[in-house]
Design a protein that fits this description.
Number of domains: 2
Radius of gyration: 17 Å
Number of strands: 8
Distance between the termini: 10 Å
Structural class: alpha/beta
Strand order of the largest sheet: 2-1-3-4
Length: 211
């Protein structure tokens, strides 16, 4: 049996990955590793620190010891750390947002990247920019993340919805830099005429296919 280990920096993505795994390829063994202090440390420092990188390498190596055939990081804020650490592992170390960025570049030239956390917005935008001849517009939804962590999910969704609709008017395709924003898309009525991409399903599907 093949094994995929997923490194999480927030509990929000754990159940999402479990549900998608059950739908896409349940015959693959899924191992979830959660350290919710990683994201808060990155946000406090403004970027991934050497300590964050060391801990991520430790988790990835432990996943190898546990029999993982591949490791995927479910957090875009530390995606660039994943790329830096790839030579240190004997198995593939994947970014959950890479397939999403590749798909965005295929669908349009004007790409909007939206996030509620700046430490996620910037690395996601850089990843999209590396995909080729594209123009990237970045949108940070001020106050939305704070509303979410304080328990006011309705306020979070309202802020994201408003910013997303405005961005859709200006671009060909929108990339959601955080999985926690994906549920807002399903509340739009009418549904957006332009593509709105989220990383969990495309990232996990690609990781499972690689096995």
């Amino acid at each position: 049996m093949k094994t995929l280990a997923v490194l999480h920096t927030t509990p929000v993505t754990v159940q999402t990955m479990k549900d998608l795994h059950a739908k896409l390829k349940p015959e693959v063994r899924l191992v979830n590793i959660l350290d919710d202090s990683l994201l808060s440390d990155v946000m406090q420092a403004g970027a991934p620190t050497a300590e964050v990188q060391y801990r991520m390498l430790s988790y990835a190596r432990n996943a190898q010891v546990a029999g993982a055939d591949a490791v995927m990081c479910a957090c875009s804020s530390v995606g660039e750390v994943v790329e830096a650490l790839r030579p240190e592992l004997k198995v593939p170390f994947l970014r959950v947002d890479e397939p999403m960025a590749q798909e965005a570049a295929r669908l349009g030239k004007r790409i909007g990247v939206i996030a509620t956390v700046n430490t996620t917005l910037e690395p996601t935008a850089r990843l999209v920019e590396r995909q080729g001849d594209v123009e990237v517009e970045k949108v940070l939804v001020e106050g939305a993340y704070q509303a979410l962590v304080s328990g006011n999910s309705e306020r979070h969704d309202e802020l994201v919805r408003t910013a997303l609709l405005r961005l859709l008017d200006r671009v060909d395709v929108v990339v959601l830099a955080q999985a926690s924003m994906a549920r807002v898309v399903s509340t739009l009525n009418p549904a957006p005429a332009k593509p709105v991409l989220s990383s969990p399903e495309s990232g996990l599907k690609k990781a499972l296919e690689s096995l």
